[in-house]
Amino acid sequence: MNFILNLIPRKFLIRISIFLRPILKIYFKGSKYIDPIDNSKYRKFLPYGYGKNIRKNALCPGTLSLERHRLLWLFLKRNTTFFNDKLKVLHFAPEQPFYKKFKSIKNWNYITCDLNSPLADIKADICKLPFKNFEFDLIICNHVLEHIDNDFKAMEEIYRVLKKNGIGILQVPIDESLSITFEDKTIIDPKKKSELFGQYDHVRKYGKDYYDRLKSVGFKVKKIDVQKTLSEKEIKEYCLPKYEKIPFVIKS
Fold first, then answer.
1. Quick one: CA dihedral 120, 124, 127, 130, positive or negative?
2. Nearest to 227 by CA among 218, 236, 219
3. How far, CA to CA in Å, does 34 sit from each of 15, 97, 98, 128?
4. Cβ pair 43, 32 in contact under 8 A
5. Which helix (DSSP H) or strand (DSSP E) does residue 77 occupy?
6. Cβ neighbours for 231, distance < 8 A, ≥ 6 positions apart
7. Contacting residues for 206 by C-beta, under 8 A, at least 6 apart
């Protein structure tokens, strides 16, 4: 099984795992690692990544969560009251690990949006949203903006459709060693993009100025370091990213 999985290109692994999920969940059952999204336990997680950036124990065989999904779930569950609040929620590019969970929250008016995803209720461009001003209490946009050519326009649209004091959780991969975001629109080769931006379909590598970009469209920005609230044992058991923060924005 491990040999076969190692032969599958990383960009297809999640798609294939959707169909193999019941088998993979049984095959990798154990007690070393835990997915906090459903508290299922495994002897190992699957590798995931692109090019030279393959991460061990990244993809949960059962929920198909990655490190960022597990981190966000812990933040939502332990550090917010969102699951108990009555909210109108917009979720961009809805992810498999969250979709059914979020859909089942009865006090949420939960709307999904994407250009292509079959899980999207509304097919739309994030840079030109078909929603009124001040419509949503909470917007979740998880690892989307690094794919968008005009990310400032996308940020402006998210700001526009949020209610006053509405909240956005706008995760992106950030290279904390970079002060300034690196982007070059002349780079179109997927291999070169993977090498420079970390993934074949990314258009930039965000630096620490990502938070300033969010502030520039009007957001009040908080950097939530969830890992500081967790024990070393939890970080290892949940296979969490060591350095990724949750960009938590408020429409002031």
1. negative
2. 236
3. 22, 14, 16, 39
4. yes
5. helix 67-79
6. none
7. 146, 172, 173, 174, 175, 178, 181
Instruction: Report the C-alpha gap between 194 and 210 in whole angstroms.
Output: 20
Mean pLDDT by 10 residues, the chain (252 residues): 43 54 82 96 90 86 94 97 98 95 98 94 98 98 97 98 98 94 95 91 97 98 95 96 92 92
CA distance 133 to 230: 37
Q: What structural domains and CATH numbers belong to the chain? A: 2-65 (no CATH), 68-251 (3.40.50.150)
Q: Where are the beta strands (DSSP E) in 99-170?
A: 108-114, 122-123, 136-141, 162-169
Percent helix, strand, coil in the chain (nearest 5)?
A: 35, 25, 40
- Identify the H or E element spanning 18: helix 10-27
* Identity of the amino acid at 105: I
Query: Nearest Cα to 61, choosing from 16, 117, 94, 12?
Result: 16
Helices 96-103 & 67-79, crossing angle to 10 degrees? 30
Cβ-based neighbours of 232, under 8 Å, separated by 6 or more? none
CB of 84 closer than 8 Å to CB of 52: no
DSSP 187-248: ---HHHHHHHHSSTT--EEB-TTHHHHHHHTTEEEEEE-GGGGS-HHHHHHTT--SS--EEE
